[in-house]
Amino acid sequence: MIRILVVDDDALVRSALALMLGGQEDLEVVGEAANGREGMTMAASLRPDVILMDIRMPEVDGLEATTAIHARPEPPRVIVLTTFDADDYVVSALAAGADGFLLKDTPPGEIVEAIRKVAGGEPMLSPSVTQTLIRRVRAGSDPRTSEAEARLATLTEREREVAVAVGKGLSNADIAAELYLSVPTVKAHVSRLFDKLGATNRVQIAICVHDAGLV
What we know:
By secondary structure, the protein is of the alpha/beta class. It has two domains: 123 residues, Rossmann fold; 71 residues, Arc Repressor Mutant, subunit A (Orthogonal Bundle). It has eleven helices and five strands, in the order E-H-E-H-E-H-E-H-E-H-H-H-H-H-H-H. Strands 2-1-3-4-5 form a five-stranded parallel sheet, with helices on both faces.
């Protein structure tokens, strides 16, 4: 059973998500919070597996809450929920450790599938939106580009290929097929990327690759 905490200041959104997710046999909504401060408190007490986190909320927004939650030992997975015009906040949240993001008009079935993937350790990346958001981060940011290039210079050629594939939003299975590797080998390469790039999730690897202009 995947335990979920919903954090959103809109009561209707919380109710709709709870109703939708509650109908799944493997999902359980264990709590609902109306702002980031409540979300941080409930995350500590309820210890959910996945948090659906809104960005724009009163008192403490989703960005600050995500950063604080991720700083704790063994944090839950966080999926950011947002509208497209909040992309600056989303990029910052992903860089702070969120495991993925969804637009609020995402079909219910895709939300459910994203939760399952994230709970299983495979962050949910929407390639089209991810590329748009990361391009904004890169715009006019030469120091960031230089830093990313320096970090990527520590990789072997194969690790670099895997990093680029992660930057494209590919899953482990897709990377294995593209590079003619086994899935366990891809997982091993991704694990080494975490260590060499100082990343805690695939999104941060993707941001590094985009910063370096490789995707």
